[in-house]
Amino acid sequence: MEITETPIKDLLIIKPKIFEDNRGYFFESYNKQNAEEKGINITFIQDNQSKSQYGVLRGLHYQKEPHAQSKLVRVLQGKIFDVALDLREGSATYGKWHGVELSDTNFLQLLVPKGFAHGFSVLSQTAVVFYKCDNLYHPSSEGGILYNDPFLNIDWKIPNQEVKVSEKDKNNPLFENANAGFKYQ
């Protein structure tokens, strides 16, 4: 696998080695031994999958300690714009976000470590998103940041009038009021 660093420390783009021929393709989407050799020491314990239509925007979500989650996100079908927001107080990139297009044709994955909020917008007719987590979901630890916070100014790559957001995500607090409690280490 090939690892690309982003402008935000610890937020990584992972591209697996793809074996293609006239029959199709094969790749290992995750291999713990290979990940550890590259310095990624995360034990994933929960897998999640969602299917969404064009214009759906999910996020920005995180879980507070002690149930914070690292996520390894990839697309099984379609195309998304995947965003991670640094919530680690003391980080040089605190309050900064980075986005990357993930699709079923580029095979890229985004490793979102603990201390980040995560969200995505669907750019294709439909998208099936799959992600691994290193901690179980705990509703009482759930947190969120308003997806269209003017301070963050995230370009979700879809026109505002076509954005489809849950009522819950429409009511997330602004970044400045989120109080996520993560500290940079």
Low-pLDDT parts are none
The SSE order reads: EEEEHEEEEEEEEEEHE
Query: Which topology does CATH recognise?
Result: Jelly Rolls
The name of the CATH superfamily reads Jelly Rolls
User: Would you state the CATH class?
Assistant: Mainly Beta
Largest sheet: 6 strands, antiparallel
What's the oligomerization state?
A: single chain
Commentary on this structure:
This protein has 185 residues and is mostly beta strands. It has a single domain, classed as Jelly Rolls. Helices cover 5% and strands 42% of the residues. The protein has two helices and 15 strands. A six-stranded antiparallel β-sheet has the order 1-2-11-7-13-5, with no helix packed on it. It has a five-stranded antiparallel β-sheet with strand order 10-8-12-6-14, with no helix packed on it. Strand 1 and strand 2 form a beta hairpin. The longest helix is centred in the N-terminal third of the chain and has 6 residues.
